[in-house]
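Minimal example, chain plus adenosine-5'-triphosphate.
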Amino acid sequence: MLGTSVGLSLGLGVAFRRGLCTSAARLRPIARSSCHGPSQPLTIRIASRPFQTPSPQRSTPQLSSLSIRRNSTKPPTRVPTTTTLNTTATPAEPAVTSGPAERPSIISRIYSNLSLTPVKENHEKDGEHGSSSVGKLLELAKPEKKNLVIAVGLLLISSSVSMLVPLTIGKLIDFFSTNSSTFLGLSFPVAAGVLAVTFCIGAAANASRAIIMRTSGQRIIARVRNQAYLSTLRQEPEFADRSAGDIVSRLSVDTNILGESVTSNLSDGLRALISATVGVAAMVWISAKLTLVMLCVVPPVSLGAVFYGRYLRKLSNMTQEAVGEMSKTAEEKLNAFKTVAAYNSQELEGSLFAKKVDSVFQLAKKEAYMTGIFWGASGLTGNLAMLCLLGYGGHLVSIHEITVGDLTSLLMYSAYVGGSVSGLTGFFTGLMRGVGAGSRVFWLLDRTSHIPLDKGVKLPHSRNGPIRFENVRFRYPSRKEVEVLKGINMHIEPGTSVALVGSSGSGKTSIQQLLSRFYDPDEGRVTFDGTDIRDFAPESWRSRIGVVFQDPILFAGTVHENIAYGSPDATREDVEAAAKAANCDFIWNLPQGFDTLIGKASLSGGQRQRISIARALVRNPSILLLDEATSALDSTSENAVNAAIDDIIRQQNITVILAAHRLSSIARAERVVVLENGVVSEEGRYDVLSRREGSRFRTLMAAQLLVEKSSKGIEASQPEQGNLQERI
Ligand SMILES: Nc1ncnc2c1ncn2[C@@H]1O[C@H](COP(=O)(O)OP(=O)(O)OP(=O)(O)O)[C@@H](O)[C@H]1O
C-alpha cells in the first residue's frame, strides 16, 4: 500500500521532473553559446588609423585610435545576444483563451499542439523557422523504419509483461491468504517458473528496445547533423557571419532534441499509451466501481501536476536565461582581461557580475520555494487520494465484492495509469520540442543560398581577362540603410596589379567581396572577360581567385595541409613551388618542414600571412585578392610579405587587386584606384598621382605618412609631406 502511494506520488512528480530535467539539460549549452555566437577571441588593437582625412577641408589626420573588435568578422553585424537553447521548449499556446467558457481543455490543448502551431521561440528571427510537421519528423525516421518496427514490437512485449506485475502480485496475495492449492491455475512452482521466464523475456525485450531506439536515434541525429552542416557550408558567407552561434546551436542541441523526439520520446509515449490503456482495462476488469472512483481522482491530480510542472519549467527557463546572461558577462570580460586590468576595472566588473549573479539567485530562490511546495503538495495529494481509494476499496473488500489481492492490483494499476498519464503529457511536450527543434533544423536543411554554389556556367581553368565594374551600387543585406558603393566604375586589365586606396570604410574590402561573389551588387554589374560574374557558377568562379585576408586563418594540421587547403590535388611539388613564390623560405627550416604541425610551430604574423599567400597561389589563380595583407604586421614581416607580393605582381598571368593602407604596399601596384564616398574619385599610375599637385591620392598619402610616422613617434613636418615621393 505504501508502495502504491509512493508510486502515485512519483507518477504525479514525473511531469514536473521532466520539465526540470530537460531544462537542466539545456543549462550547459546555454552557458556555452549564449554569448556572441561562436566564441571568437576579442582582439584589442591599438591601430594606426590610416587615411583619416578623407575630407578635403580637414587635413589634420587622426593619429591613432584604439579599436576593439572581434576577429574575423568585420562588420557590426547583428549578433544574437543570447543563443538560448530553450527555444523549443515552450509548447504552443492554445489559440483562444478569452474566457472561462472558451478556455481550452487539456484535450484541446493537446489537439492544438498536434495541429502543430509553430512553437514560439525566445529569439525568433524573421523567417528563420522552417515549416514543420509530425509527418516531416516521422519522415526523418523513415530510413530506420525496420528497426523502429522491431523496437515497437519489443515494446509491446515488454509493456505487456510489466503490466502483468500488478495482477500477479494481487493473485499472489490471494493465493497466500486463501491457502489455495493452485496459483494462476498451475501448481505454485510451475507458475513461479512460468512467471520467471516471462519476466526474463520482458527484460530482454525492454533492453533490446532501448538499444535499438537509442542507436536509431543517434543514426538519425548523425544524418541530420551532416546534412545540416553541409547545407550551412553551402550558404552565402553573410549567412554564417550573421548567425554562426545560432547555427551551432541548431546543429548541436536542436538535432539532438529532434533525434530524441522521433525515437526515445516516441517509444516512451507508446509505452505510456499501452500502459494507460492496459492499466485502465485491467482495472475495469477487476472492479468497474472502484475504477470509476480512481479515474475521478487520479487524472485530475495528474493534470494539475502537469500544469504546475509547466509553470515551474518556465521559471526554470528564466533562470537558465539569467545564467546565460551571467556567463556572457563573464566570458566577455575574461576575454578582455587585459583591458579590465589596464583600466583598473576589477571592482566595477565585480559588481556588474554580482548583479547578474543576484538575478540568477532570485529566480533560483523562487524556483526552490515553488519546487518545495510542489513536492510537499503532490506527496500529500497522492497520499490523500490513496486514503480515499483505500477507504472505498476496503469497504468493497468487506462486502466481499473484491478480494484483498484485487484491491492491491487495482491500487498498483492506478499508480501505473497515473504515471502513464504523466508520461503521455511528457510525450506531447517532447513531441512539441521535437517539432520546434525540427523546424529550426529543417529551416537550415531547406534553406537555399542566395548565391547557390553550383548554379551557372563553369569557367575554363586557363581563362583570364579584364575585370570591369560597371556602375556598381551595393548595400550590405544586414545594413540596408547604408549604401557602401554608390556607382563604382573601374577597369582592370588581366595580369596587372591595382591598389585600392581610400579611408577606412571607403569600400575596399567590399569591392573584393563582390569580386569573390560573397555578395552580389544591388545595381550594375561586375564582368570578367565580358561576362557578368553572376553567370558563372560561384564554385567555378572562386576556383579562379586566390584570396588573402588581413587576418591569416590557419587551420589545425600541417603546413602542407594548410597550403593545400582548397586544392586537394596539389602535390608536394606544387605546395613547395607556391611556398617559394610566397617567400616562405622559413618553412624549410622548421623541424619537420612542410609536415610541421601548425600548432607546434610558433609562427610570426608575417610567416602566417605568407603561408596564406602560398595557399592562394597553389591553386594557380587568375586573380589574386590581397586584403590589407600587411596592415597588421611589423616592419620586418611587412618587408617579407611585400617581397612576396612583388614577385607575384611581376608574373604576367595573374591579376592582383590589393586593398592597402600602407604606402609600402600601395607603391608596389602598377595602378592606384582611389575610393571616396562610395565612388572612384581618382585613378592612375602611382608615381603620376603621387606627383600631381592637389591630387586626392596625394592628400591621402600625406595623411597616411603622418599616421605611420606618428605611430613611430616621429613628428612630421610640412616639407616632409611635400617630399612624398622621396620619402617612399
Ligand atoms: N558585412 C557587413 N555588413 C554590414 N556592413 C558592412 C559589412 N562589411 C563592411 N561593412 C560596412 O561597409 C563599409 C565599407 O566597409 P569596407 O570593409 O569595405 O571598407 P574598407 O575600405 O575595406 O575599410 P578598412 O580599410 O577599414 O578595412 C563600412 O561602413 C563598413 O562598416
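The pocket of adenosine-5'-triphosphate is lined by residues 74-75, 77, 476, 478-479, 484, 502, 504-510, 628, 659 (CB under 6 Å). The chain is about 60% helix and 10% strand.
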